[in-house]
Automatic annotation (TrEMBL):
<feature type="region of interest" description="Disordered">
    <location>
        <begin position="30"/>
        <end position="53"/>
    </location>
</feature>
<feature type="compositionally biased region" description="Basic and acidic residues">
    <location>
        <begin position="117"/>
        <end position="134"/>
    </location>
</feature>
<feature type="region of interest" description="Disordered">
    <location>
        <begin position="191"/>
        <end position="210"/>
    </location>
</feature>
<feature type="compositionally biased region" description="Low complexity">
    <location>
        <begin position="30"/>
        <end position="42"/>
    </location>
</feature>
<dbReference type="Pfam" id="PF01510">
    <property type="entry name" value="Amidase_2"/>
</dbReference>
<protein>
    <submittedName>
        <fullName>N-acetylmuramoyl-L-alanine amidase</fullName>
    </submittedName>
</protein>
<dbReference type="InterPro" id="IPR002502">
    <property type="entry name" value="Amidase_domain"/>
</dbReference>
<comment type="similarity">
    <text>Belongs to the N-acetylmuramoyl-L-alanine amidase 2 family.</text>
</comment>
<feature type="region of interest" description="Disordered">
    <location>
        <begin position="117"/>
        <end position="136"/>
    </location>
</feature>
<keyword id="KW-0732">Signal</keyword>
<feature type="signal peptide">
    <location>
        <begin position="1"/>
        <end position="27"/>
    </location>
</feature>
<feature type="domain" description="Peptidoglycan recognition protein family">
    <location>
        <begin position="270"/>
        <end position="418"/>
    </location>
</feature>
<dbReference type="InterPro" id="IPR036505">
    <property type="entry name" value="Amidase/PGRP_sf"/>
</dbReference>
<dbReference type="InterPro" id="IPR015510">
    <property type="entry name" value="PGRP"/>
</dbReference>
<dbReference type="InterPro" id="IPR006619">
    <property type="entry name" value="PGRP_domain_met/bac"/>
</dbReference>
Amino acid sequence: MRAYLASSIGVACAAALVLPLALPASAAPAPSLTSAAPAGPAGEVSVPGSTQSLPLHALPAERAGAAAQGLTARDVRPFSLVGVVWDDPDTELHGSVQVRTRATGSGAWSDWQSVDTHNHDHAADPGTPERDSGTVRGSTAPLWVGASDGIEVRVRAEAPRSGAAPAALPRGMRIELVDPGDEPVIELAGEDTAQGPEVPEGNDTGTTSGQVPLPALTAEESAASAVNAELVPLGAAEIPELTKEATEAAFADQFGDEAMVAKPYIGPRPRIITRKGWGADERLRERNFVYTKSVQAAFVHHSATGNNYSCKQAPSVLRSIYRYHVKSSGWRDFGYNFAVDKCGNIYEGRAGGVAKPVLGAHTLGFNSNSMGIAVLGTYSQSNPPSAAVTGVARLTAWKLGLYGKNPRAKTTLTSGGGNRYKKGAKVKLNVISGHRDGFVTDCPGARLYGKLGTARSASAKYQGR
């Protein structure tokens, strides 16, 4: 199959839909938390960023019969994101997690902030090598707190019901403090983009090329970049956008006119910042890529990391989530296939190729034949910026179009098992669904969930329907 490259000066390139020659999920090796990372002087893994893992201790209970653990206020090494993990991934944390952090520089302590405890619904499906690797842990959602050097934690179990035994907390709880490491150099859409229209006219995103000269690639970086080689040169920091006409022409050129007749509704390819662009350390993830058969649906999530970030900080948020997913939660890679920030910038998530059906760990029970899109932020009570909704629409119009899917239609998926549908159940879902459609959860937050109708209509419009 021929490859078509696009340069940063706007040469049109093919929208790749290359079915990968890779091991199926059942043949993939178990995840490694230190995959191919070089050892430091004391045998420690030397990678950008760091994770401090501090065990929690018993605290005086404030409610009769309720268990409490945490940490008193203390100095720690610099970090920007926090989360709590525990030993057994099948154990849920029934209670609350709150943290206070001290800002680096000013020394000011924040108010108590709540951490979303329901992260068990974002995970690899039961029975997959990733889920059964033995490295997976129970975990809360991560919370972005910004540059900090002090921490205080309190975890409280639910108060027991009258006559019931005292509620217990999971064993082996630890607070994870993640430092994302240095920022990569790439230009992003500005904060004012967040106020843009939900259904903009034309294809102009108002962004400019952020590609910069790149150093020599490691073997792991080369592998993660090579899966996008039909779209951009090796080591590219971004995949430039194409007009709808250029996207369709490239698809027809690569697969033939008959393929274009069969799939006439492909939206314009949006600009996508690659893993290289947001600074993913490829030595952290499991080495191989795992694919599913197709992409029949898109599940929209919120990251539940809070809204206290700027779009310039989004790459740091992504690197922090990535490290938390792999090093703290024990997953093989970043859980979502894509991420969208509040300014509408779109990011490549789990490695394997943006046009390919990469198996993610985003919607427990429905990771097969789907993709997961995380909108960075928490949208249970806050409205998502219109630029973020537009980013979801642009991404789905292109990616779902490659697989012949109508964003306003329904599709049927087979459940891998979860709390809403039993394993093996055939479930009819919207082609663009919210996480809560496949699992009992608040995700993607009520306010973002309420915008999915807008995203479906805009996505279909971009496809020319």
